[in-house]
Amino acid sequence: MRRRSPAQRALIAAGAVLLALFWFGPFVLVGIGSVIPEGNLLSFPPRWFANPPFLGNYRYIFTGEIPQTYLERGALRSMISQEVRLVPRAMLNSVLIATAVMFSSLTLGSLAAYAYARLRFPGRAATFNFILVSRLIPTVALAIPYYAIVLRLGLLNTHWALIAIYTVLTLPFSILVLTLYFRTIPAEIDEAAQVEGASSLQVLRHITLPLSLPSLVGTGLFTFMLAYSEFLFGLLISTSASTRTLPVTLGTLSTNPDVAWGLMMASIVVGSVPTLILVIPVWRFMVRGLMSGAVH
Amino acid sequence: MGDTTAPRGEAQALAVEQRWSYRWRVARSGALMTLPALLVIALFTIYPFWYALNESLHLSSPILGRRFVGLDNFRNVITSPYFLDAARTTLIFAAIAVPVLVVLGVLVALLLNERFPGNTLLRAGMLLPWAIPASVVGVIWKWVFLDSWGALNAGLYSLGLIDNYISWLTTPWLARFAVIVAFTWSQLPLVAILLLAALQAIPDELYEAAAIDGASAVSRFWAVTLPGIRPMLVIVTLYEILMALNVFDITYAMTGGGPGTATSLLTYYIWAETFKMLNFGNGAALAVVIALLALAFIAAIVRALPKEALLGEHA
Predict the structure, then answer these.
(1) Do B91 and B187 reside in the same domain of the chain?
(2) Closest Cβ opposite residue B111 in set A19, A109, A294
(3) CA-to-CA distance for A104 and A110, rounded, in angstroms?
(4) B303 pLDDT exceeds 60?
(5) Do the Cβ atoms of B41 and A134 come within 8 Å?
(6) Which end of chain B is more exposed for a tag (fewer CB within 10 A), N or C?
(7) CATH at B272
(8) Looking at the domain assignment, is residue B67 inside a domain?
């Protein structure tokens, strides 16, 4: 290790502190905001810490029990947004859709990835490039046609439409990552099985997939997160309360001038839980993949 | 002699035939295995693009029905002051946000490449902004910047730094600044981690050699670090340009394109034109324009990538 001068050490310390503030600051503020009674939040000058932490916002989201502080200040009662009560339902919708997308994207993705990694066939390079490039088209350019297609198929306000669209949006990623991973498995293992008379499909199922478990888990969780986070198509296609996804519910809530911000922030905390649980395995997989890819 | 060559010829012919039938089987399974994914992607890429192109050449109205109008929609949107305004806003946004992201990304990657207590915590912390849905990123930063009782105003006031609250989200340039901050927050993790990966791939010997030659830290950066991460810098820059052209969720949740049209990026403008104004023809024409713009960038990315970097040598 090189020795550092005091100036260098100060620079590193200052950078680390600034970065920590930038990364974590907004989350801390949201957490604080979710436990401050509405009256204190809106007051000028600010009185954030005048009262002990208040959990009424969280209780309202799950039970519908209107927080005491809102009743006291009768005028603010209308600011309680009924839509906040839809957050748990929206989370369920998002989790269902994202789980289905994960499985369909992995199934179609691993089939194609095996072919791109191992088999020679006409159009291999051209179709691979087409798949990758297809994802670079701005989604907003696809929004109108997708809306029209879904409308014509009568799938507006269904989970099926979003599952299909998110599968298309995540497939290029799954195919790319799985192709790169499958190629790291020694081809001799495949060949040994082929000599025994196994078909490509059997090799994929009994040899390649079991050997690629870490990569499959990582890719699957990543597609889950992409599907869980998507906003534009969710906004266009699921407009009814029973099918609306979490990002759409939270994103449109914030444009409602009547929303109570304490509730808004409690919703963000609640809605972020699934992503935060998943993010650690995803990140480990991605960082490891990127680092080894760069070294190689 | 003839006795020995004839069977060998037959064996060869048999071997050739076997190889051909093997190749045929491989090609068939390759095509069959890629078909489902290709069909789904093609259906949702080629058909929509054709649909948008077709729609952009027609005018649909509830009264007059649908009729062919040629390039009228394109003329309408390209000459519209709103379009020019949105295009200008998008260019300004990308021209500020992307360089800021890349410079900060290099700095953060350099920092995280050093050993210091808390490094692991910071690397883990990166995943938080990256993992949050972009619409929620917009909501979080809206709370920070909110004019009347946002966290930043309350904080600055409590510290005695300001006497009156600043109208962050209702002053055009401040609102643009706020959107850029939110975008940077959500994109910086990926940029920094990609650049960190590139940094760690630079061989230590290069630094040692530079140190022996008596190069200062700054000149080591210019002579060794920067050339080492240049390919990744190019990729990251182009990728972030695409991301900047794609921003929709953040502005939707944070500013709704406002104040006025100060933060109406092209994406937001297309969405508003189509689904608020219900002008599908113009919306489709805009979609075609932005898709062509993106294709130009895609071509640049493909050129920047080393040939066959992804598919391997035997393509």
Answers:
(1) yes
(2) A19
(3) 10
(4) yes
(5) yes
(6) N
(7) 1.10.3720.10
(8) no
Domain that holds residue B32: 1-38
B25 and B109 part of one domain: no
Q: For residue A94, which residues of chain B lie inside 8 Å, CB to CB?
A: none
Mean pLDDT of B100-116: 92
B125 and B257: one domain?
A: yes
What's the pLDDT tens digit per position in A63-93? Answer: 777 776 665 554 455 555 677 788 888 999 9
CA-closest candidate to residue B240, choices B88, B91, B94: B94
Structurally, chain B folds into a number of domains equal to 2
Highest CATH level, class, for A85-257+273-295: mainly alpha
Structure tokens at B193: 């981690």
For residue A88, count CB atoms less than 10 angstroms from its CB and return exposed for 0-12, middle for 13-18, buried for 19 or more: middle
CA dihedral B76, B78, B81, B83 (to 10 degrees): 110
Q: Where exactly are the structural domains of chain A? A: 6-83, 85-257+273-295
C-beta of residue B255 within 8 angstroms of C-beta of residue B145: no
B-chain residues near A27 (CB < 8 A): 128, 140
Q: Mean pLDDT throughout B107-120?
A: 88
More confident residue, A25 or A39: A25
- Disruptive mutation site among B22, B28, B33, B269 for chain A (greatest number of A CBs within 10 Å): B33
pLDDT at residue A136 greater than cutoff 90: no
Helices within A35-158 (DSSP H only): 38-42, 56-63, 68-72, 87-118, 124-134, 139-152
Q: Considering the domain boundaries, does residue B288 fall inside one?
A: no
Q: Is residue B57 part of a domain?
A: no
DSSP A206: I
For residue B31 the two structure tokens come to: 């095509």
